Amino acid sequence: MKKFALGTVMALATVLSAGHASAQTALKDVAHVRDGIIAVGMAYEISEQCDSIRARLFRGYSYLQSLRSHASGLGFSDDEIDAYINDDAEKDRLEGIARAQLVALGAVADDSESYCAVGRAQIAANTRVGWLLR
Fold first, then answer.
1. 133 phi/psi in degrees, rounded to 5
2. Would you write out the chain's pLDDT as a tens digit for each of its 134 residues?
3. Residue 22 and residue 2 in contact, taking contact as beta carbons nearer than 8 Å
4. Ramachandran class of 75: left when φ > 0, alpha when ψ lies in -120 to 50, beta otherwise
5. Long-range contacts of range 62-66, CB-CB < 8 Å, 24 or more positions apart?
6. How would you label 88-123 residue by residue, b for 16+ Cβ within 10 Å and e otherwise?
7. Which residue, 33, 83, 116, 130, could crosslink 123 as a Cys pair with Cβ 3.0–4.6 Å?
8. Where does the signal sequence lie (predicted)?
């Protein structure tokens, strides 16, 4: 009897938590996913602006896949995840956040050395952004 009750509770908790994630929280409000995508965007922007720093493409791809898996584990369907990934307005919003964070860290538009300095500092501090760069 105890095994059945525990199994039932665990199954119910899984169903409720999955439904709760997709019904109550928009994927854009899941901090781990949102902040991860922003970090990837920041690393990409640094690698595009600074010739001496490159993005770790395999690491970045693997990290994005882990974010997708995390969202899936929270109960978001593939369709919900794809809709979030393909939402142009959300892409623009996250890109704006990433660029604002780079500016706050010292990056200056049209000054590649400022992006290099930010990138080197992120690498030295072993931040998520730095971890995605070499």
1. -120, 160
2. 334 333 333 333 333 334 444 456 899 999 999 999 999 999 999 999 999 999 999 999 999 999 999 999 999 999 999 999 999 999 999 999 999 999 999 999 999 999 999 999 999 999 999 999 99
3. no
4. left
5. 63/36, 63/132, 64/36, 64/37, 64/40, 66/36
6. eebeeebbebbbebbeebebeeeebebbbbbbbebb
7. 130
8. 1-23
- Give the model's pLDDT for residue 17: 39
Amino acid at 72: S
Biggest alpha carbon–alpha carbon distance for the chain: 69
pTM beyond 0.85: no
In this structure, what token pair is assigned to residue 83?
């809709």
**Spatial separation of the C-alpha atoms in residues 100 and 54, rounded to whole Å:** 21
Q: What single-letter amino acid sits at 60?
A: G
Q: Tokens representing 96?
A: 């704006």
Q: Give the 3-state DSSP-derived string for 58-96, with helices as H, strands as E and coil as C.
A: HHHHHHHHHHHHHHHHCCCCHHHHHHHHCCHHHHHHHHH
As given in the structure block, the two tokens for residue 100 are 């604002």
